[in-house]
Amino acid sequence: xxxxxxxxxxxxxxxxxxxxxxxxxxxxxxxxxxxxxxxxxxxxxxxxxxxxxxxxxxxxxxxxxxxxxxxxxxxxxxxxxxxxxxxxxxxxxxxxxxxxxxxxxxxxxxxxxxxxxxxxxxxxxxxxxxxxxxxxxxxxxxxxxxxxxxxxxxxxxxxxxxxxxxxxxxxxxxxxxxxxxxxxxxxxxxxx
Length: 192
Fold this sequence. Notes:
By secondary structure, the chain is mainly beta.
């Protein structure tokens, strides 16, 4: 399956029914069930736009672009603008060219490994985060939540603005294993 030359805009409306952690997404491509995996997905030249809606809602999960539960695929030139998360990758055996997050709240580019969608064997050529809003927290975040994250390689990371440029974090029982970052360039952020 190939998804290319596509833009999705969540719009400006905000629904209180979306406060359970499932709403406000721009573009989502993911598996259907807990044991399902989407294979051979290729995503190119896509843009997801979303807005926070209610900045006081700590439970809302707003993804500009979410690629989740995908295996044996690729992504290139993916842009996520706005929301809590810019571009979220929960993928395995994936080759990623350029991925960009802009004006996001929590993380602009986010690799998150959890039991629903473990992250394993992911190569990213370039991750770019641009966050000059007051709410930008982490430019690039690599995290194992409740599943081990392993074999992630990022060729270069460029972060403009935000609070923390890049962060890699794991748990004691579910660590991040073999994470490599080639080049890291930051500008205008609070901490590196």
